[in-house]
Amino acid sequence: MYAFDYQRPSTVSEAAALLAEGAKLLAGGQTLIPTMKQRLASPSLVIDLGGVTELRGISRAGDRLEIGAMTTHAAIAESADVASAIPGLCKVAEGIGDPHVRNRGTIGGSLANNDPAADYPAAVLALGAKIHTNKRELAADDFFQGLFTTALEEDEILTRISFPIPERFAYAKFPNPASRYAMVGVAVAKGPQGVRVAVTGAGQNGVFRATDMEAALANTFTPDALKGISVDPSLMSTDIHADAAYRAHLVGVMARRAVAAAAA
Amino acid sequence: MAVNMRGEVVLPADHERVWEMLNDPEVLRICIPGCETFEPDGENAFRAVARVKIGPVNARFKGKVSLTDIDAPNSYKISGEGEGGVAGFARGGAAVRLEPAEGGTRLVYEVEATVGGKIAQLGSRLVNSVAKKNADAFFAKFAKAVSGETISEVEAEETALAAGETQ
Fold first, then answer.
1. ipTM field
2. pLDDT for A111-122, tens place per residue?
3. Are A193 and A164 in contact (CB under 8 A)?
4. Residues of A in contact with B166 (CB under 8 A)
5. Residue A164 contacts by C-beta under 8 Å, 6 or more apart in sequence?
6. pLDDT tens-digit readout, A165-198
7. Could you point out which of A25, A213, A250, B30 has its C-alpha 20 to 30 Å from the C-alpha of A155?
8. Is residue B134 within 8 angstroms of chain A, CB to CB?
9. Nearest beta carbon to residue A149 from set B57, B85, B167
10. How many domains does chain B have?
11. Domains defined along chain A, listed by start
């Protein structure tokens, strides 16, 4: 490895004070460390959030479920609080990567990275969650701003995610068999904010809401309500695994599966 | 892996001006996303350094750029070969053609590129999307440049954008 400085603060304010030009926050390291090993990033300072205990944990507060940014996918998958409030969210966490990734990777790291094929962005957007940082709170709709881009500023730290508890929620994905990243993933929620459908893995510009599907499902919350509704293939991404037309098709299939699972 | 992309954009300027801008290294430097230097290196050849900053990736790439098949003021081929060091390689070209269009000049581009090494491994899911995003950013800035805004205006706007840039 090449040389870089390493700090392990124990509070959010200490971590924020360390953030400066050339510094990078390390959550679970499932993206940052491989990127550094490939020499595609060379931060001068790595600020490890692993020692910041206030960023971990899951709690039920009235009609909301609160999850700390440094909570691992494994902890979310196994949480009794998550299982009783939003069981579909346990399934989202369970379906990420492999046991290694689930035991190291965190929900906050995944959201801050906003990989266009990650699972959590779809769930968080469909559920209409609020993203809290050390400076402010953001609606999910304002947080995600395209491929690997979020509303987070360079000196801002994502602290927790606050989910309203939906009546129904499910996520269905077509995973890449090697990486288990979503080739297409669709999250569907029915709750205090109406019906929301969010799609990951497919759009050229990252996670997006499928508003035509939302309107149809607001009338009738059944897989059949989605018949004849398609997404525009010219907005879908193409790579060696799937072209845009195939991805557009998969969005419809995954959406129907998600609705069927949520309605069950 | 190969990246193929085609597109067109109607620029609000006359044919001659668009051609002139397409051959101006300073305009190209400002319009290429992340480009830090773009210097002449022989006739119709340049050396460029660009910083790619997307998601976890934050790396600087050096490359050679050359213009060939020049049919002034109608078309050329711009080819580049990047050396990302251990990160991988990228080489490719774009055939660029100008046509008259209502309200200005239509620029048609066809990109063919090959990406290899670690960049391709890490980013095979993303290379097309990133390439498209960068092409869109290039033409958005290029359209501003040809529509009469001076380079310093475009640059100032760029600096303001970068200052408010979010991640």
1. 0.75
2. 999 998 999 999
3. yes
4. 145, 149-153
5. A63, A64, A127, A128, A129, A191, A192, A193
6. 999 999 999 998 888 899 999 999 999 999 999 9
7. B30
8. no
9. B167
10. 1
11. 1-52 (3.30.43.10), 168-263 (3.30.390.50)
pLDDT of residue B103: 87
The β-bridge partners of A225 are: none
Residue A232 main-chain phi, psi, to 5 deg: -75, 115
B133–A contact, CB cutoff 8 A: yes
Range of the domain at B78: 2-33+68-158
Buried b (16+ CB within 10 A) or exposed e, A209-233: bbeebbebbeeebebebbeebebeb
- What string of DSSP letters covers A196-251? EEEEESSBTTS-EE-HHHHHHHHH--SGGGGTT----GGGB---SS--HHHHHHHH
Please indicate whether, in this complex, the C-beta atoms of A42 and B119 are within 8 angstroms of each other. no
Among B61, B130, B133, B167, the strongest candidate for a mutation testing the A interface, having the largest count of A CBs within 10 A, is B167
**pLDDT value of residue A241:** 83
Residue B4 Cα to chain centre, angstroms = 15
Q: How many CB pairs under 8 A join A and B?
A: 80
User: In which residue are the tokens 């069981």 written?
Assistant: A87
pLDDT band at B54 (very low <50, low <70, confident <90, very high): confident
As a whole number of angstroms, the distance between CA A65 and CA A76 comes to: 11
The CA-based diameter of chain B, rounded to the nearest angstrom, is: 47
Cβ pair B129:A31 closer than 8 A: no
Give a yes or no: residue B14 inside a domain. Answer: yes
Please give the share of chain A, as a percent, with pLDDT higher than 70. 100
Is the CB of A204 less than 8 angstroms away from the CB of B119?
no
